[in-house]
């Protein structure tokens, strides 16, 4: 029953975000911000597919251990694409609120992203092992978490000033995504059922995409 639920959920999630991403990209016309939202959704969906599709395959065939390499590679790709996702979300914030300048902030955002990606490439992650070292999972998620916290603060601050109702809860969706993600990083190796928190975490990302999809009428 668990396999059926997880498989159905993952497939619906991938179809939803990629479809919405393609629709936003095609419907954007000259609206750069809406197009970027579409690209962001596609990056999210395609990146997660590298992890979720092998996971579905493993669940219904020979199991996780027999497919450790492809699952690890999928996690590696997803780690990179999620970093790109937040960079794009940062630029959407700049466009939406007509932010100019702030070169130091942009530099720091990109520095965190580069550090995160560099840590993902470190061989110590042992991506192709079923149980990669916890300490390296923590290392690579420190700059990623800081990046996410900065972006949620930026959205929160602007939600108090902006009249744009479509994105006013963007900060909250980011809070939820990290609140469900961090326990999985820290405790899933000790208590595997906690991995189910990835489901509400995924719902938070669908919410982010959904907010972007409904923003067209305000642009």
Describe this structure in words.
With 219 residues, this protein is an all-alpha fold. It has a single domain, classed as Rhodopsin 7-helix transmembrane proteins (Rhopdopsin 7-helix transmembrane proteins), CATH 1.20.1070. It has 7 helices and no strands. α2 packs antiparallel against α3 and α5 packs antiparallel against α6. It is globular, with a radius of gyration of 17 Å.
Q: Which helices and strands appear, and what pairs or packs with what?
A:
Blueprint: H1 2-27, H2 32-60, H3 68-96, H4 103-121, H5 134-159, H6 170-187, H7 198-213
Which characteristics define this entry?
219 residues; mainly alpha; 74% helix
The main pleated sheet reads as: none
Based on CA atoms alone, the radius of gyration comes out at: 17 Å
Oligomer description? single chain
**In the residues, how many domains can be counted?**
1
Globular, elongated, flat, extended or rod-shaped: what is the shape?
Answer: globular
**Which fold name fills CATH's third level, the topology?**
Rhopdopsin 7-helix transmembrane proteins
- Identify the CATH homologous superfamily: Rhodopsin 7-helix transmembrane proteins
Provide the residue-averaged pLDDT: 90
Low-pLDDT residue spans: none
Structural class of the secondary elements?
mainly alpha
Order of helices and strands: HHHHHHH
- Count, helices: 7
Q: What portion of residues belong to β-strands?
A: under 5%
* Measured distance between first and last alpha carbons: 43 Å
CATH architect. name: Up-down Bundle
Report the count of strand segments.
Answer: 0
**Helix share, percent:** over 70%
């Amino acid at each position: 029953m668990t396999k059926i639920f997880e498989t159905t959920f993952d497939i619906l999630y991938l179809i939803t975000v990629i479809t919405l991403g393609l629709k936003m990209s095609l419907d954007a016309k000259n609206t750069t911000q809406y197009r970027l939202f579409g690209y962001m959704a596609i990056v999210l969906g395609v990146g997660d597919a590298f992890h979720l599709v092998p996971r579905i395959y493993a669940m219904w065939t020979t199991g996780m251990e027999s497919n450790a390499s492809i699952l690890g590679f999928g996690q590696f790709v997803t780690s990179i694409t999620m970093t790109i996702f937040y960079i794009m979300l940062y630029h959407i914030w700049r466009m939406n609120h007509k932010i100019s300048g702030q070169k130091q902030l942009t530099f720091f955002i990109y520095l965190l992203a580069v550090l995160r990606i560099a840590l993902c490439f470190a061989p110590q992650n042992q991506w192709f092992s079923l149980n990669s070292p916890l300490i390296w999972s923590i290392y690579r998620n420190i700059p990623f978490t800081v990046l996410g916290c900065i972006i949620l603060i930026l959205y929160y601050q602007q939600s108090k000033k902006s009249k744009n109702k479509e994105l006013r809860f963007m900060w909250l969706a980011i809070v939820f995504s990290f609140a469900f993600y961090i326990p999985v990083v820290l405790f899933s190796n000790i208590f595997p059922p906690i991995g189910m928190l990835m489901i509400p975490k995924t719902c938070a990302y669908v919410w982010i995409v959904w907010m972007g999809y409904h923003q067209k009428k305000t642009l």
